[in-house]
């Protein structure tokens, strides 16, 4: 490129300075993304103590339309999470994601609860908090600790590619005669710019919606499976998503609420989502800290939505049945079964 700008020393100097600054930015962000790594679950989180809630819920197994309380529900933003020492189980928080039986997700490889939106990484062989994806482009798993550097890397790389393409077009006479080597270079750089741009666009979109890449892909696959199961009358598998919530007036009971396709449990607004990913380097070292941080990730809007559904009777008493059932996969309206 500099060969074609040799006649214009000012343009050549500007190109060299800007391109080297951008390359340095790309290199530094890649190094920090790779070296810092995604982070790992700092400690093992024992199972929740749910046996008493299951026992209480079983009392409602054969009782239809029984009102536990007429009072309105309100899911508090502050949960009283106290982790006892030297115990094999811990008290459950006021709200947590669960399977259709109301049980929290468990990693058998790490022998820990899957909190902090973590998933087990086959590359790291550990659970990764806020696991996003494994990026072959940078050669590292992307998670809570290095997501900010990864985002900076994407924008640095994207800016460098756009700058390179524009420089070639402006200073190499693309409307006239263009050297064959620059044509190949322009096509290659343009193609890479499209790929990186698509990744950056999806990443910003996920931040805006308060979701990770793997959460988006899992929800997309779930929607496809639900649509497929609807077309198969013999397939009664429930493939929805649920939250297990402390009953608002009866502390002995917990309820299960089915999530809707429009639910975004962790969407706290773009600024807070970005702050969580980009500037929050909170070091979590104990189950107490992890539980409190996990609970703080749920948005107030989502909690209010769950409270409204509980008030309108769209829930199931935890322990009252082994599996949630409804006529529509996207809507649950079963009360105290």
Automatic annotation (TrEMBL):
<dbReference type="GO" id="GO:0006612">
    <property type="term" value="P:protein targeting to membrane"/>
</dbReference>
<dbReference type="Pfam" id="PF01529">
    <property type="entry name" value="DHHC"/>
</dbReference>
<keyword id="KW-1133">Transmembrane helix</keyword>
<feature type="transmembrane region" description="Helical">
    <location>
        <begin position="149"/>
        <end position="174"/>
    </location>
</feature>
<dbReference type="GO" id="GO:0016020">
    <property type="term" value="C:membrane"/>
</dbReference>
<comment type="similarity">
    <text>Belongs to the DHHC palmitoyltransferase family. PFA5 subfamily.</text>
</comment>
<dbReference type="GO" id="GO:0005783">
    <property type="term" value="C:endoplasmic reticulum"/>
</dbReference>
<keyword id="KW-0564">Palmitate</keyword>
<keyword id="KW-0808">Transferase</keyword>
<dbReference type="GO" id="GO:0005794">
    <property type="term" value="C:Golgi apparatus"/>
</dbReference>
<feature type="domain" description="Palmitoyltransferase DHHC">
    <location>
        <begin position="106"/>
        <end position="218"/>
    </location>
</feature>
<protein>
    <recommendedName>
        <fullName>Palmitoyltransferase</fullName>
        <ecNumber>2.3.1.225</ecNumber>
    </recommendedName>
</protein>
<feature type="transmembrane region" description="Helical">
    <location>
        <begin position="180"/>
        <end position="201"/>
    </location>
</feature>
<keyword id="KW-0449">Lipoprotein</keyword>
<keyword id="KW-0472">Membrane</keyword>
<keyword id="KW-0012">Acyltransferase</keyword>
<dbReference type="InterPro" id="IPR039859">
    <property type="entry name" value="PFA4/ZDH16/20/ERF2-like"/>
</dbReference>
<dbReference type="InterPro" id="IPR001594">
    <property type="entry name" value="Palmitoyltrfase_DHHC"/>
</dbReference>
<keyword id="KW-0812">Transmembrane</keyword>
<dbReference type="GO" id="GO:0019706">
    <property type="term" value="F:protein-cysteine S-palmitoyltransferase activity"/>
</dbReference>
<feature type="transmembrane region" description="Helical">
    <location>
        <begin position="12"/>
        <end position="35"/>
    </location>
</feature>
């Amino acid at each position: 490129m500099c060969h074609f700008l040799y006649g214009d020393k000012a343009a050549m100097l500007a190109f060299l300075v800007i391109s080297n600054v951008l390359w340095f930015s790309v290199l530094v962000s890649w190094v920090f993304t790779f070296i810092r790594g995604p982070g790992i679950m700092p400690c093992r989180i024992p199972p929740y103590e749910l046996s008493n809630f299951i026992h209480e819920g079983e009392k409602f197994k054969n009782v239809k339309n029984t009102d536990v309380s007429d009072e309105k529900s309100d899911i508090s933003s502050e949960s009283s999470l106290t982790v006892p020492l030297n115990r094999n189980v811990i008290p459950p928080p006021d709200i947590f994601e669960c399977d259709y039986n109301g049980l929290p997700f468990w990693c058998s490889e790490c022998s820990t609860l899957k909190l902090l939106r973590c998933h087990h990484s086959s590359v790291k062989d550990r659970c990764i908090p806020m696991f996003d994806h494994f990026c072959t482009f940078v050669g590292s798993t992307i998670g809570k600790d290095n997501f900010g550097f990864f985002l900076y890397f994407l924008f640095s790389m994207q800016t460098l590619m756009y700058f390179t393409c524009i420089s070639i077009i402006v200073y190499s006479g693309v409307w006239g005669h263009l050297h064959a080597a620059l044509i190949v270079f322009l096509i290659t750089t343009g193609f890479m710019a499209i790929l990186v741009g698509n990744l950056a666009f999806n990443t910003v979109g996920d931040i805006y919606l308060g979701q990770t890449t793997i959460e988006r892909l899992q929800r997309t696959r779930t929607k496809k499976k639900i649509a497929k199961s609807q077309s198969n009358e013999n397939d009664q598998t429930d493939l929805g998503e649920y939250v297990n919530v402390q009953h608002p007036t009866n502390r002995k009971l917990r309820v299960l609420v089915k999530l809707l396709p429009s639910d975004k449990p962790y969407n706290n607004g773009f600024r807070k989502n970005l702050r969580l990913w980009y500037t929050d380097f909170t070091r979590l070292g104990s189950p107490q800290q992890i539980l409190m941080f996990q609970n703080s990730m749920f948005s107030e809007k989502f909690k209010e939505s769950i409270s409204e559904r509980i008030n309108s009777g769209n829930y199931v008493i935890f322990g009252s049945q082994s599996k949630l059932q409804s006529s529509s996969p996207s809507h649950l309206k079963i009360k105290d079964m």
